[in-house]
Amino acid sequence: MPPTIRCNNMNPHDSSSCPCCSGAGYADCCLPFHRGKAAPSPEALMRSRYSAFALELADYLKQTWHPQTRPQDLTLEPNTQWLKLDVLNSTTTGEQGTVSFVATFKEKSEYLQLSETSDFVFDDGVWYYLDGNAQFETFKPGRNDPCLCGSGKKFKKCCG
Question: What are residue 45's phi and psi, to 5 degrees?
Fold first, then answer.
């Protein structure tokens, strides 16, 4: 069964939408990177890596991880539903880049958020993920926050 991916700023019934929540179609956004095209920036690489997590593309994640910090094994949690990506900041200085983001996801019956500032390096003509400082916390929606499923209802009245 394919993973469920939704972005609260997109139509959840549009299967052509890119998982990275850019608003573009998958074919024009992250798919070219997943098929081997080099990402032109740290933010593009980070978005494509988020999509790879959502689509369970472990090989792509390993290929785009810098060899100095790449883990030997990478096991993805098959029951994770990636729901939303918010890019907070992206900077590039020469061959170094950082991207700060918050990714909201569901594991089992718990909604969580991953906040991370990721470091990227441009090495031999290609951007790579180097490392990041990740923090996980339970997702705590505000009283009137929209539901992550895209229904248009308040989170607490819908999926909460």
Answer: -65, -40
